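lol ok so funny story. i was supposed to be doing the assay writeup but got distracted and ended up predicting the structure for this chain instead. priorities right. anyway since i did it might as well share w the group, maybe its usefull for someone
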Amino acid sequence: MTLDKQQILTGQKIAAASRKDAHIDLALDPATKSSGNNGFDRLRFDHCALPEIGLSAIDLSVEFLGKPLAAPMMIGAMTGGTMRAEAINRALAAVAQDHKIAFAVGSQRAALELGKTASDLRAIAPDIPIIGNLGGIQLARSGGIDLAKAAIDDLQADAIAIHLNPLQEAVQPEGEHDWRGVRDAISALVKADMAPVIVKEVGGGISASIASDLFALGVAAVDVAGFGGTNWARIEAARRDDDITPFAPFLDWGIPTLDCLMAVTKSRTETLRHEQLIIASGGLRHGLDAMRAYWLGADMTSLAGPMLKRLLDDDKTPSPDQLGQFAAQLKQQMALALFLTGAANLAAFRRKPAWLDGQAL
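and the output, tada:
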């Protein structure tokens, strides 16, 4: 039997959706975590034994993408495109709305290609920033800008994140290896002015030079997404049924998140500081890591793997209550970091002294 082009395309779309479900299970597997760390334990703050402030009065509030948030925290991009992912995203959106934190969805390509909508997420979370998501490779294809518009419109998104994942694609059995044209596609998307454009990695990290280039293109934010958390190279290697030896030296490839963040923050143009947002993600474990990232210059912090684990712990049925408790704990930890340095708010916290590897910063 000969398959026509439409049947082939339909099969590819279904396969992409199936891959997304496999990613969820593998992301929860401890074996797919990076063997290295994010580097944040190298950073320490002065302990203030006499804070002279009330812990309950600590102010973590920020504005992000034009909307007020209770803390500089975001549920990072995880998944999309399947029925299981839809249930996960609805739960994530509800928790983000309840706790006044931002929410980024996973790649929307599979869902859009299958004619599915995620428009209900905006109804669930009307008051917080919701960020759409599309791969850089998909954006660079013919019709990529139209696909990005569809992703933005479907979510009524406050921004669109374009993810860069060359290592993941290289290891993925059905990965895309031709990355020509991605930079120009990002530039075209910025010029189309549909929504603020965020560019993120998925665990390999974004260097200072790449971040500077992206900011020069006019992107609204760069998410450094450094090494130290969920490892997509290991996830894709686990999906292969052939010899993974060629990829073995690269399974823990990447720039640790702390190093990414410090380099990117240093390179940010001072005159455009308020227009060039930096998001810190990649192995953040708790509220103290988030505050370490904020002190180093991040405008927003993002956690994905720990959020997914709390949501799907035990029987792997989404548990918004369990995730809500974790979100509350993260905010409590963030406030405690300020309290123990004697800072009443985020601005005061950034003025507190800190040490990296025992040396004052």
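The longest strand covers residues 130-135. The chain has one domain: 20-354.
back to the writeup now i swear
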